[in-house]
Amino acid sequence: MVKSQIETTLDPCIFVIFGATGDLTERKLYPALYNLYKDNHLPPQFAVVAVGRREKTTTDIQDDVVESIRKLSRQNYQQTSEDSQFIQGFHYFQLDFYDSDNYLNLERLLTELDERYQTHGNRVFFLAVAPEHFAPIAEEISNHGMAPNQDSWQRVVIEKPFGRDLVSAMELNTNISRTFAEHNIYRIDHYLGKEMVQNLMVLRFANTLFEPLWNNKYIDHVQVTFAETVGVEGRGPYYEQAGALRDMVQNHMLQLLALIAMEPPVDLDTESIRDEKVKVLRSLQVSGEDVIRGQYGPGVVDDKQVIAYIQEERVPEDSQVETFVALKARVENFRWTGVPFYLRTGKHLPKKYSEIIINFKKLPGVLFFKRGKLDPNLLIIRVQPDEGIYLKFNAKRPGTEQSIIPVSMDFCQNCLEGINSPEAYERLIFDVVRGESTLFTRWDEVEHSWRFVDKIAEGWQDDPKMVVPYPAGSWGPSQADFLIRTDGREWFM
Ligand SMILES: NC(=O)c1ccc[n+]([C@@H]2O[C@H](COP(=O)([O-])OP(=O)(O)OC[C@H]3O[C@@H](n4cnc5c(N)ncnc54)[C@H](OP(=O)(O)O)[C@@H]3O)[C@@H](O)[C@H]2O)c1
């Protein structure tokens, strides 16, 4: 690939994608690699090996890469000689993951490319495949000497779901750890690559305005909502194994909660931050009656009639899998005791967005009780699709009367001209290549998230209560509103 101007400090490496003909690679990885290249965030000596099962040639895969960039990249494909040199750095290798002998040929190709691109044996293995393939692929990589770890580095990147409970996650971890040391395992949670999630720590720890108030003295409660308008979109069999609890809460939502609630780390290095996140996950508590699970029925979303979950392709008619979860968690530590964390996620909801709301306590209204409603201060961190920060506070209504109105300051990051926020995968791939793992989850974070989620899931097994239906296009079952209303609060929409 063409020599980049800036990132000469990055180690040379080969980026090996298993599952190169899949959806994730096409939609996210190819465009992200192109954008990194355009922003000079790839090392000068860099090549990609796209590993796929289908019969394809290197020319085919290079055409696929260009097509995916044209369709999905945030920066336009320019067809300059430099761009075509970047594309020529992609090589295809046909492999069935279970054809052990063929890994020998893959190893030969990598060695040959090491010579050609001067990549010294440094490799990223990105497993864009279903989790049941993680361990067998890792084992073959080890058996064929592709991860020798001497005078070079080899890192593996894996996608969620990381197990379907603690036991399966532990088994998976043990298997992968036979080939890769913990510091070389990059467990992606792509939410952590989002701009506003990265902004959370800056917002908290770089502003006198917030950090002194970030505790149970001043915060009444926290809400985290991840709402999707889509349904399961043909991924019924996967969803049947996961459900909203395992698909969204165990990873993305708990990761966000940990970042919101953690103590200031002693340093901004990876392990110090992860240590603080783990402490939050260990302090998490929930009661069975504070978890509501729902499943969408037929309804109207975005002006279109949609079918019920149980009518989706390859979903059993009597499925009890939840497509919606709302819960009230507690972080039982000195800072947070008494502050509920309400989490809510679902499919086929009326609006697509992810947002964190910090609801401050109300001040006593004694001074102003005749002058209007005294609303609590709100800090909203908009994660997607809008990226920004919204702060609501009280001010005097202009005029001769001394009455009060809520006003707001609204900072929209992605509305600013010239700001074209990188996609989460760009930041994450960049971090893998430079060996920075703060935005990836360490094993003990995964472990404690599963402990929390398993407790809920076990409760459901004993609970004869069925999953509660909700019409697609609504905000979930009414029990979710009841959960927060009984505490005298409302979901912020
Ligand atoms: N898609 C997303 O947006 C997304 C988001 C978050 C996480 N993930 C996770 O990322 C992983 C990949 O998802 P995906 O949506 O890209 O899946 P996908 O579209 O089904 O792609 C799977 C890939 O694995 C290959 N494959 C399967 N079995 C194989 C075998 N025995 N030998 C060789 N290749 C084999 C497929 O090859 P063929 O093309 O030949 O079948 C395909 O390239 C999953 O763990 C998923 O949960 C995906």
Description:
This protein is of the alpha/beta class and 493 residues long. The protein folds into two domains: 147 residues, Rossmann fold (3-Layer(aba) Sandwich); 294 residues, 2-Layer Sandwich (Dihydrodipicolinate Reductase, domain 2). 34% of the residues lie in helices and 23% in strands. A hairpin with an 8-residue loop joins β10 and β11. It binds NADP nicotinamide-adenine-dinucleotide phosphate.
Q: Output the number of helix runs.
A: 12
CATH superfamily of the largest domain: Dihydrodipicolinate Reductase, domain 2
Which class of secondary structure composition applies to the elements? alpha/beta
Cα(first) to Cα(last) distance is 47 Å
Beta-strand level of the residues, as a percent range? 15-25%
Oligomer class: single chain
Average the pLDDT over all residues and give the rounded result: 93
The biggest beta sheet is recorded as: 10 strands, mixed
Q: Which spans of ≥5 residues are poorly predicted at pLDDT below 50?
A: 2-6
Bound molecules: NADP nicotinamide-adenine-dinucleotide phosphate
What is the count of structural domains?
2
Q: What is the approximate shape?
A: globular
Q: Provide the CATH architecture of the largest domain.
A: 2-Layer Sandwich
String of helices and strands: EHEHHEHEHEHEHEHHEEEEEEEEHHEH
Q: What radius of gyration results from the CA coordinates?
A: 24 Å
Secondary structure: number of strands = 16
Helix content: 25-40%
Query: What is the CATH level 1 assignment of the largest domain?
Result: Alpha Beta
Which fold name fills CATH's third level, the topology of the largest domain? Dihydrodipicolinate Reductase, domain 2
